[in-house]
Amino acid sequence: MNSNSVTAQSVSAHAAPDQAVVTYQARIHVTLRPSVLDPAGAAVETGLKHLGHAGISGVRMGKYIELKISAANEAAARQQLDQVCDQLLANPVIENYRFELESI
Amino acid sequence: MKFGVIVFPGSNCDRDILWVTQGILQQPTRMVWHEDSDLSDIDVVVVPGGFSYGDYLRCGAIARFSPALRATLDHAKAGKPVLGVCNGFQILTEAGLLPGALVRNANLHFVCERSPLIVGRTDLPFTQGYRQGQTITIPVAHGEGRYYADADTLARLEDNHQVVFRYGDNPNGSLNDIAGICNAAGNVLGMMPHPERASDPLTGGTDGLALFEALAQQLVAA
C-alpha cells in the first residue's frame, strides 16, 4: 500500500477499523415547518392558558432525537447526519431539522 | 396471481382488501410479506391501511424502506397500478411516489365516519366505474389524514388533474379538500378513505366496490 492510498482512506466518511474514529453525541431537533398547522401545539397552548399562563403563545410541538455517531471527524459526522435526517428522521415536505454534536 | 397486498407488521386492513379482491371479486390475490422483494407475478399492488411499524417516527416513514416497498417503487415505475389506502397513502407519500404529506387532523379528532367523496377523474384504471362528479360514500378512519403540500405542489396537482377524490365534508382539514390523489402518470393512487370497507353489503355500503371491479376488469382486458 503506498502513501497516497492511505491518505485517500483517511478522508473517507466511513473510517476503516484500524483508523482513529471519533464518537459524537448528536442531539437532533425536528420541528414542523412554519407553514404547517400544528393542532397539537395549539391544544397545548390552550391548556397552558387554562392553567393561567396568559403570556404564552406560539406553541409548536416537535421531536427530539439522541444518537451516537462514530466518524473520522466532525465534518464526516455532520455529512452523515444530514443524510440520516433527510432520508428518515425528518420529512422535508413538512419538517425542518437541526442538530448539535459533542465529542464523547 | 394478480392482486398483491403488502403486509407490514401493524397492517390491519390487509385482509379486508383480500376479502374484496378474492372473496367478492374472485380475483387471485397474494399476501406479500414486507420482507418479500419479488412482485413480478403481481399486476396490482395494494398498500393497505393500519399502523405499519407502529406508526413510529411518522406514519409510513419506516415502511418505506422495506424490501416489498422498494419492489413497489419498481412496479410503479413500470407503469403498473399501485393503490395505497389510509396508512398505504401515507407510505406512498413518504416513499415519494406521491407528492405532499399526511399530517395530524386539524381538529385533533380521530375521524371515524362515512364520508361523501366527489369523484374528480374517471379515466384512471381505478375510477372507470364511476361518473365524473359523482358523490360516493366511503368510510374514513384516521388521526393523521390531513393532506398537506406547499402551494406550488398543490397548484401542480390541480393543473394536472391529479386530485382523484375530494371530501364533500372535509373531516380533517385537508388542503383543497383532498381525499385522494394520483401521480402524474395516473397509475399510482393514494387515498385516505377505505373503499374496501364499502364493498360488502354487510358493512352498510358498496360504493367502494366499483374501484376494485374497475381494476379487475383492467386485468381481464390486458
Topology:
The complex is a heterodimer of chains A (104) and B (222).
Chain A: H1 3-10, E1 22-32, H2 39-50, E2 62-71, H3 74-89, E3 95-103
Antiparallel strand pairs in A: 1-2, 1-3
Chain B: E1 3-7, H1 14-24, E2 29-33, E3 44-47, H2 67-77, E4 82-85, H3 87-94, E5 101-103, E6 111-119, E7 135-142, E8 146-148, H4 151-159, E9 163-167, E10 178-182, E11 188-191, H5 209-221
Q: How would you describe the overall organization of this protein?
A:
The complex is a heterodimer of chains A (104) and B (222). Chain A is built from three helices and three strands, in the order H-E-H-E-H-E. Chain A has 104 residues and is an alpha+beta fold. Chain A has a single domain (3-36, 62-103), classed as Phosphoribosylformylglycinamidine synthase subunit PurS (Mth169, Chain: A, 2-Layer Sandwich). A three-stranded antiparallel sheet of chain A has the order 2-1-3, covered by helices on one side. Chain A starts with a helix and ends with a strand. Residues 1-13 of chain A have low confidence and may be disordered. With 222 residues, chain B is of the alpha/beta class. Chain B has a single domain (3-221), classed as Class I glutamine amidotransferase (GATase) domain (Rossmann fold). Chain B has a nine-stranded mixed sheet with strand order 2-1-3-4-11-10-9-6-7, sandwiched between helices. In chain B, strand 1, helix 1 and strand 2 (29-33) form a beta-alpha-beta unit. The radius of gyration of chain B is 16 Å and the shape is globular. The mean pLDDT of chain B is 95.
What's a quick, concise take on this entry?
The complex is a heterodimer of chains A (104) and B (222). With 104 residues, chain A is an alpha+beta fold.
Jot down its keywords:
heterodimer; A: 104 residues; alpha+beta; Mth169, Chain: A; three-stranded antiparallel beta sheet; 29% strand; elongated; B: 222 residues; alpha/beta; Rossmann fold; nine-stranded mixed beta sheet; 5 helices; 23% helix; globular
